[in-house]
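To the team - xanthosine-5'-monophosphate complex, inputs and output below.
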Amino acid sequence: MTRSLASSPPEVTLGATAGSQEVLVLDFGGQYSQLIARRVRECGVFSELLPHDASLEEIRTRAPRGLILSGGPASVYSEGAPHLRRELLELGVPVLGICYGMQAMALELGGQVQAATIGEFGRSRLEVRATGRLLHGLPAQQSCWMSHRDTVFAPPPGFIALASSSESPVAAFEDPARDLYGIQFHPEVVHTPYGTDILKNFLDDVCGCDMEWSAASVADDLIEAIRAQVGNGRAICGLSGGVDSSVAALLVHRAIGDQLTCVFVDHGLMRKNEGDQVVAAFRDHFKVPLIAVDAEQRFLERLAGVSEPESKRKIIGEEFIRVFEEQAERLEHPAYLVQGTLYSDVIESGGPTGAATIKSHHNVGGLPEELGFELVEPLRALFKDEVREVGLQIGLPERLVWRQPFPGPGLAIRIVGGEVTSERLDILRDADFVLQDEIRGAGLYRELWQSFCVLPADLRTVGVQGDERTYGYVVVIRAVTSDDAMTADWARLPYDLLERVASRMINEISQVNRVVLDITSKPPGTIEWE
Ligand code: XMP
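Output:
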């Protein structure tokens, strides 16, 4: 998969606060480029991605401690293959090339790179001949994860070949005099057990980083940056109760106090008690000025008679913007809008991906530019798990920090194939409550990416309860594991848990007489049913 990156760096550049302790990943289009930056951060070094053709001036200005050249889908010999500029290897900054990055380095410096007849994909055995600096302290034999066709057959002059695998005569090389290093395999994936050690060798021994960065340690810097941006202006934040907007709102409140007002739009499509919990946490506990708008009737009226999924999303998105705008007007239009944009959103919206629109996610719950706010996005440089760390650091309760993702259009896209009515919403809310209660009770909540129920709107089935014939609703249980929602697997929930869930749903919700389990992975299914 090839992506293109935003060429402008996030406004909140933690690299600056990291005091030139950062290591930049230059992205040659690899699937794992983001993961490299995440792993580097996990090692205690701040890291961001830049496009492979980022200007030398920008790179010099950021004064990184090291550069990592990512993998990529191209062959170094194919037409239009991303070019590695020689100047990058002569900046006086250590460089580690991974996969395509290594091949491009080898080619540029006079090594021998060829397209092998058979590629090398998946687990491989690495034979280490000399550990050098890069593989220092690591075993002579280890497994690693490969994904390549082009192969380095001879290192460039001045380099030492460190290791080989069955299909890669030179699977790792280095030239410590020029501080240039390369590995053919992927240290960032879990299938390379010594991958983190190799990255640490590079970051610590070669680049001399102090290895002390952590998400929790940057909360104060983020608060300072918000203060600098907003000054004594006023800000507004659409609070959904999800972890991203919650952490963003609380950071901004810490920075500018009551210059911030949060708006929580209760569209009536929330889970049970959710609205009350958000109000209790923010208004009562954290004392954040909060307007809770009860807009259930408005949304239900606009959704009446609608069952087509994209129409529902569109209506909910539009109505959300309208309600939000009204509140902004009542507050005499603050100049700043707080949003919980994450680093993955920044990277992924960097350019046209050419991907088909499967669902119009980002049109729902998002606010259009025409509203005329200046954006405050304190989480722009952070990954989701780092946002959770920051949240815990600034005192958000675990229950909020570890909340599973919940879609902007809420339960409306979980009542499928028919109209969204308040009776159906109540049934779905009650079913969802039982499921969450049992999953939390079994200690499984955090292991699941999401767990929820779906209600087929117009489907009834026959049952028998207490010798009586029933004709009731079917509740679908959907529980998935995933790292990023791009792919997902259905969760193997224990049978006894499923049994308790089914019997409680049927006993406690009179309109329900059947419970079924969705065992579709993604792809081919999506996580939500609409
Ligand atoms: P799918 O169903 O496409 O969902 O596999 C992937 C992830 O996105 C969430 N999702 C949404 N989030 N607004 C959101 O904020 C939406 O309209 C929306 N639709 C789906 C979904 O819950 C899953 O985590």
